[in-house]
Please model this.
Amino acid sequence: MQNLNNQEQVAKMFDVVIWVTVSKEWNVEKLQEAIMRRLKLDMESFGDVEENARRISEELKEKKYLLLLDEVQDFIDLNAVMEIHNNIDSKVVLASRSRCVCYDMEADELINVKRLSPADAWNMFQEKVDRIGKAFRKKGKDVSLWRDGLNRLRRWDRVKTEGMDEVLDFLKFCYDDLDGNKRDCFLYGALYPEECEIYIDYLLECWNAEGFIHDVDELVDDTNAFRDARDKGHAILDALIDVSLLERSDKKKCVKMNKVLRKMALKISSESNGSKFLVKPC
Model:
């Protein structure tokens, strides 16, 4: 889906390409919001489902569009979402692990996407690591931290990677480099639903309430306690973003957690005897 969204040849074929990842907790309003943001419609007048569908339909009425729906797990009534009409020039492409969903969506053609071979998967992973490394160096980060991470990742090809547990174990190296407070703050982020937009102010308040971003002995001046805790919270947040354990959302005041890293965080919490979080193992 990402390749379709980024390909210049595809972009030239359509007036607009809309790529939406459908989370497990999706609903019509969330889907409409994602589409409307891509179309750059006025979000201040975000209305009810029927009004939103009318606005989307009106915007796309005379356009040739490609709608990409990624990770679809349930039937989506596109007429309710955007009053979709029989526009033969426009296309809808959906990706799903379930054939039944494709049948329910009345897909014209089903394409079985095969898994990458071990060699291709390893080559793609190496390319990703190389890109991250270049970005890491451009930001002027400590090269020794990156070098240590690479040394751990080089063991990948000597380990059987048949299941997600092995993948999560390798991603854990960034987590292991965090100090105690940052670890707690990272694990707390996994308590939000998958693909959730987390408001920064609310997240910092929760961290503070849990005691993650302040120490009673440090708060000498009560009048500055709130300000000091908030400053420390932002410092922790920036640190987690810098090592890509959290990422900034399209919404300026929000962050979110990659779903694979969220699985890792939930796995860590479920296996920790000292964790105060009640979580379900991945």
